Amino acid sequence: MVVYKFGGALARSRRGLLALVKLLQEAQKREAVRMRRADRSRSGKNSSAEINGVVLVVSAIGHTTRNLARAAELAEDGKLREAEEVLDKSIVQHEQLAESLGLNDAGLFDRLTKLSRDIASLLEGVAIVRELSPRTRDAILASGESLATILIEALLKDHEIPVRLVEARNLIVTDENFGHAAPVLDETSRRVEKQIVPQLRRSYVVLTQGFVGSTRDSITTTMGSESSDLTATLLASVLSAEEVVIWKTVPGLYTADPELVKAPKLIRSLSFDEAEEMGRRGARILFPTFAHPIVQSNTKTLVRIATPFARTTGHTTISRELARPKQRSSGTGGLALAIEEHLVSMVVSASNLHAFGKHNIILQWQSEAEIRIVIRKEDKKVFLRDLEAAGHTAKESATVSAISLILSRPDFVPEAFSLIAKSMHNFRVYAILQAGRSLIVLVDDAEGIPALRKLHHDLFEN
User: Fold this and answer.
1) Cross-strand bridge partners of residue 376
2) Which range among 56-65, 292-301, 317-326, 445-454 shows the weakest confidence by mean pLDDT?
3) DSSP strand pairing (243-247 vs 212-214)
4) pLDDT for the residue numbered 328
5) Tell me, what's the pLDDT at 31?
């Protein structure tokens, strides 16, 4: 069986959604052939443990999640009318997509309208109390995936693809760390066996939301930006899927973001460790812990990143063990560059930060008698509040971009460090640090993209 994760950038257009229909039709044909061959080869043997079929995990369409986050922030500031306007734009986008696809079922638009009212009610509550709790934020953001599944379920039914929607809130059990919730594997596994397996045995495509889960008490949670990848691999590990395909607008992972550099090179193969390191260091195409469920379950599941658009060839395969082709890394042992922009660098008075690990500190290092950290802007407010409650202070020192060179082997560090320092001599560099299997350059935020391009040119294009 196979798990498909369909990205929000693809789903934002009629072309992308029709490509999804074609992908599922082709996958169903392959699964049907496989099942017939398996039936002939079994010759009456017990096959109750075998599972075939397709599970489809979808993300919120386009910038819906970002828009919902913006609406929530406006509501917290008491700007309810502006928040409702932002929400309306997202709803209109889904309605226009439905119309472009010829989906004229009144029930579809009624469901979109009802969900819109539910979101508006949450925004109104935030505006009244002038507080956006992590729990309420998750409830608002999770609505983006619900909007997507309403539209995609209607589309698949319109094309006579047998589909069953299984709500992720009823499927993925997580802890209560709102915004960065971690899945609880044993309880999730039991629900997958109960809710997904019977539908697959009836030859349905099972549709569910990525990114979203719920606590044991059925309170909605989210697992972090881009965590639909994690949803897909989690389901694949429980179902022992042969493959997870992450469908994107690009055919795979590159030596740098193709939207940011001129001549990126497609990376044909990576290990799970290497791919997760790219995700940790800002490669937006992957969730940092996406491979954990597969690694922990000891399945032989492969992950493939590909595009459905025929004009583009090639893909990236990610697996447990890797036979490394000679051309895979640069002369410095570099696999790829990743960047995170608009980060906050701070000097912290605390002697240690062990109690603040939940705040997702990106970097931490000792500089003379001070602790310096780098944190995302959206995490700054809560971090400072909790730091102050513990009797500590922090002083913001700069807004930075973190450019990471992911290395194939740790013994390449000295040579790579030297070449990075040479390449960056005309930029304002705050630090060059080693973290995990990466070398990270902190540069002035205004110089982040130019510095990335210069590094890519020097390390991968020469």
Assistant:
1) 343
2) 317-326
3) unpaired
4) 47
5) 79
Strands of the sheet with 54-58, listed across from one edge: 163-165, 205-209, 54-58, 2-6, 243-247, 302-306, 316-319, 269-271
Q: Which candidate, 235, 251, 226, 231, places its Cα nearest to that of 305?
A: 251
- Which residue would you say has higher pLDDT here, 360 or 78? 78
DSSP 347-411: EE--S--GGGGGG--SEEEEETTEEEEEEEHHHHHHHHHHHHHTT--EEEEEEEEEEEEEES-GG
The identity of residue 278, as a single letter, is M
Residue 348 has a CB neighbour count (10 Å cut-off) of 22
Beta 302-306 vs 243-247: how paired, if at all? parallel
From the CB of residue 136, how many other CB atoms can be counted at a distance below 10 Å?
A: 20
Residue with tokens 């350059």: 441
Rounded Cα distance, 240 and 298, in Å = 9
Length of the chain: 462
CA–CA separation, 287 vs 230, rounded Å? 7
Look at residues 337, 339, 322, 334 and name the one whose alpha carbon lies nearest to residue 268.
322
* Cα–Cα dist 251/179, whole Å: 29
| Type of residue numbered 352 | N
The answer to whether the CB of 250 falls within 8 A of the CB of 9 is no
- CA 412/CA 131 separation, integer angstroms: 48
Q: Where are the beta strands (DSSP E) in 37-171?
A: 54-58, 163-165
Residue 286: φ, ψ to 5°: -135, 145
List of domains in the chain: 2-42+50-247 (3.40.1160.10), 330-461 (3.30.2130.10)
Structure tokens, 169: 């809130």
Q: Are 273 and 288 in contact (CB under 8 A)?
A: no
- Tokens for 297, please give them: 């379950």
Q: Which of 157, 62, 151, 52 is nearest to 108 (CA)?
A: 151
